[in-house]
Amino acid sequence: MNIKIIENGELRENCYLLEKDNNYLIIDPGSEFEKIDSYINKDGKVLGILITHRHFDHIGALSSFVEKYRCPVYDKMSTTDEETYKPGPFTFNVIFTPGHTPDSITFYFFKDNKMFDGDFVFEGNIGRCDLEGGDMNEMMKSIEKIKKYPDNVTLYPGHGEFTKIGHEKMRNFFFNK
Question: What is the pLDDT confidence band of residue 80, given thresholds at 50, 70 and 90?
């Protein structure tokens, strides 16, 4: 699986474009439709859009992508259970990780040891819980859930650099509360 990180918008949100055999998944399509779309091969097929949570900086271009590619959207509203999804050559699990927002979810590509977690966990920190809908108690429960996954799983956040679960267990204050 190839991963393209496309930083975009005023808040420098990370949109992730996953590609396998000219098939694509878009994770959190930010706010710069043309910029993100320019990385999709004109002969490629977009199989879905994955939304970690519905803050404006993560979904600004969502309607444009849905209109152009007519593909399903995977988010908390469409995924009522933590289960496995298999669009085309991709396989991922949905993990509910509320705290930053009530609708926060993480997408776990277990065959590739990669998680796309939006604004849940950042390198050395966590997402804000002081915004509307944020809940520190829910955040701590979500962290406990994620800590059970292997240390070598790479976390791809909605902003900033990627990290690994093992690194966060050693260095992130919130993983050791």
Answer: confident
End-to-end distance of the chain based on CA atoms, in angstroms? 34
What's the CA gap between 77 and 68, in Å, rounded? 21
25, pLDDT greater than 80? yes
pLDDT in tens, 93-123: 999 999 999 999 999 999 999 999 999 999 9
Residue with tokens 């966060």: 168
Homologous superfamily (CATH) of 2-176 is: Ribonuclease Z/Hydroxyacylglutathione hydrolase-like (3.60.15.10)
pTM for the whole structure:
0.96
Cβ neighbours of 77 (radius 10 Å): 10
The CA distances from residue 147 to 2, 56, 111, 134, 151, in Å, are 25, 28, 18, 20, 8
Residue type at position 164: K
